[in-house]
Amino acid sequence: MWNPNSDGRQMEKRVVVGRVRPTWARNLPDARDDDDKNDQEGVMPHSEPPSPTEPWGQQAKQEDKYDAFGKVMLLGDSGVGKTCMLVRFRDGTFLAGNYISTVGIDFRNKIVTVDGIKVKLQIWDTAGQERFRSVTHAYYRDAHALLLLYDVTNKTSFDNIRAWLGEIREYAQDDVVIMLLGNKSDSGLERAVRREEGQRLAREYQVAFMETSAKTGLNVEAAFAHVARSLVAKANPVDPSRLAVRAQPSQEQRSSCPPCS
Ligand SMILES: Nc1nc2c(ncn2[C@@H]2O[C@H](COP(=O)(O)OP(=O)(O)OP(=O)(O)O)[C@@H](O)[C@H]2O)c(=O)[nH]1
């Protein structure tokens, strides 16, 4: 097993100060005490990955307090924009320029507040390349939610979604939250997959759907908020209407359909 200390990274037991789980949060994925890590730029070229269940920790900061915790994995073919999606969500920037393919797997944390509830998302960025599949499969079982991406300019990445859903069925928990995302929706004329095709596929598999752009930021926050809200609703299923997908309108929608959301 890969040892997190072998490259000099400090491993400390995380101490959570005065965090009380409210009643509604009792059934939520456990807010583990060791689920934090050093936030570093870039992805780590591991020859062996960190354990799927035992990420290393660091001292908790007061502002890190949260009510619920969920592990989210980004999946999809190589080049669909998984890393860019994570960087856009985490740091609010776009990784333009040279495309460097992810090697192995890595994660970042971010706390989102939905309906007044602070949900800490631990987001795992996976390598889309075939040769890393056996590594990433080991992480599926631990995931509470999966964001499955295709590239709207790349028909093959869309056609491969069925195969990805097959892998999810094989390796992930039965009740995992799944959301399909058609990324690079900013690409205009290069588009090869229509929005309706994505919607149809999502309906067929009964998963939520949005078109996103890591470049412009369209629906990036909304997608992660939907996941966070779904995790909370799953643990406390009082009001299913809270699960409605609240997508931002795209450019075309804004001009043609003002009330769409
Ligand atoms: N136009 C546009 N380009 C994007 C978008 N998201 C990502 N890209 C570009 O697509 C390329 C691949 O992005 P990555 O985020 O590295 O893709 P990935 O899915 O992580 O790829 P792997 O690490 O190989 O699995 C990069 O050149 C990005 O700049 C987007 O929303 N719009």
UniProtKB/TrEMBL annotation:
Keywords: GTP-binding, Hydrolase, Lipoprotein, Magnesium, Metal-binding, Nucleotide-binding, Prenylation, Protein transport, Transport. The keyword Lipoprotein applies. It is an enzyme of class 3 (hydrolase). It comes from the Eukaryota. Its cofactor is Mg(2+). CDD domains: Rab26 (cd04112). GO terms for biological process: protein transport. Residues 1-61 are annotated as: Disordered. It catalyses: GTP + H2O = GDP + phosphate + H(+). The keyword Lipoprotein applies. Its EC number is 3.6.5.2. Pfam families: Ras. One of its GO terms (molecular function) is metal ion binding. Belongs to the small GTPase superfamily. Rab family. This is small monomeric GTPase. It comes from Manduca sexta (Tobacco hawkmoth). The lineage of its organism: Eukaryota, Metazoa, Ecdysozoa, Arthropoda, Hexapoda.
